[in-house]
Amino acid sequence: MGAGRNHAGGASALLVLLLSSLFVGVPAAHAAFTASGQSGFRVSALVLQPPVASITASCAGGGSGKGKNRLNIAVSSVGSVPRANAYVLIVTDPSGTSYTVDPASSGYSNQSPALGTWKYYVQAQYRVPGTTNVWKSNTANPLTVVC
Fold first, then answer.
1. Do 114 and 93 form a contact (C-beta atoms < 8 A)?
2. Residue 61 domain-assigned?
3. What is the number of H-type helices and E-type strands within the chain?
4. What is d(CA 3, CA 90) in angstroms, rounded to the nearest whole number?
5. Residue 57 falls within a domain, yes or no?
6. pTM tops 0.85, yes or no
7. Main-chain phi, psi angles of 55, to 5 degrees
8. Which of 1, 39, 56, 139 has its CA 20 to 30 A from that of 106?
9. Do the beta carbons of residue 88 and residue 99 sit within 8 Å?
10. Digits of tens for pLDDT over the chain (147 positions)?
11. Full domain range(s) for residue 71
12. For residues 124 and 75, is the Cβ–Cβ distance under 8 A?
């Protein structure tokens, strides 16, 4: 009786049992992520108006350069601009090189200025605390002096 049995059915059952035991011991990789978050995206734009400033400029004799001129640009007063926390005097020489000067100092002076038209204006700034970000006022029509 035992010799006449078909062992193919028992072998396949054993194979199924063996394979299923491999999957039972190792859990399937399932992941569920339920965390969510929101953040406000803050963007701002600050428009600073150009300040009203009282500036005098001259380019006259007494220098040591080619034309023997001396360039002096002095700021005697700067009007307040809302939200501005700094002011600078921007001076641009005839070649386009700009110099930034604190208007509270003695201004800008050059003993041997390049010959041509120099431009200058006062700019209001908002320097963002704790960063290097600077909001700058719109550039007013610069004033000029010819050397």
1. yes
2. yes
3. 1, 8
4. 108
5. yes
6. no
7. -125, 135
8. 139
9. no
10. 555 555 555 555 545 555 555 555 555 566 666 666 666 656 567 788 889 989 999 998 765 656 678 899 999 999 999 999 999 999 999 999 999 999 888 789 888 888 899 999 999 999 999 999 899 998 768 999 998
11. 53-146
12. no
